């Protein structure tokens, strides 16, 4: 059998990794082995970062809601507010409620008062 050097296939794979490693410092953008490791780790960090961003946004929404509740007279705590919404079958998620609290405080106040009516 003749010898096969995988020239074009290997070059294509290396170019793909180097393209992803563009902007990395020192040998991380020049040497294939090092660049490949850096790209793999960067992908892991990016994946974890996407998950963490969602967690941080939820924390931000909860903080905004709690701050808006504290400004109301006879304000309940956040947990009691969420429980009251669930009991009244109000299906607004935390993102929407926090948007109401920031951009439309009157609407937020109306939702809060409605959720605590007997």
Q: How would you describe the overall organization of this protein?
A:
The chain has five helices and no strands. The protein has a single domain (8-115), classed as Ribosomal protein L20, C-terminal domain (c-terminal domain of poly(a) binding protein, Orthogonal Bundle), CATH 1.10.1900.20. The protein is mainly α. It has helices at residues 7-20, 32-71, 78-87, 94-103, 105-115. Helix content is 72%, strand content 0%. The model has no long low-confidence stretch (mean pLDDT 90).
Structural class: mainly alpha
Which fold name corresponds to the CATH topology?
A: c-terminal domain of poly(a) binding protein
Fraction of residues in helix: over 70%
Rg for CA atoms: 26 Å
- Global morphology: rod-shaped
In the CATH classification, which architecture applies? Orthogonal Bundle
Return the string of H and E elements.
HHHHH
Total strands: the figure is 0
Poorly predicted regions: none
Number of helices: 5
CATH class: Mainly Alpha
Largest sheet: none
CATH homologous superfamily grouping: Ribosomal protein L20, C-terminal domain
Number of domains: 1
pLDDT average, as an integer? 90
- How much of the polypeptide forms β-strand, as a percent range? under 5%
């Amino acid at each position: 059998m003749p010898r096969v050097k995988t020239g074009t296939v290997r070059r294509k794979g290396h170019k793909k990794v180097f393209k992803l490693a563009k902007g990395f410092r020192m040998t991380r953008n020049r040497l294939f082995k090092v660049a490949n490791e850096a790209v793999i780790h960067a992908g892991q960090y990016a994946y974890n970062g996407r998950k963490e961003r969602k967690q941080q946004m939820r924390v931000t929404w909860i903080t905004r809601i709690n701050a808006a509740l504290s400004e109301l007279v006879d304000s309940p705590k956040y947990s009691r507010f969420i429980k009251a919404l669930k009991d009244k079958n109000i299906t607004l998620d935390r993102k929407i409620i926090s948007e109401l609290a920031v951009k439309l405080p009157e609407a937020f106040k109306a939702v809060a008062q409605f959720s605590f009516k007997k």
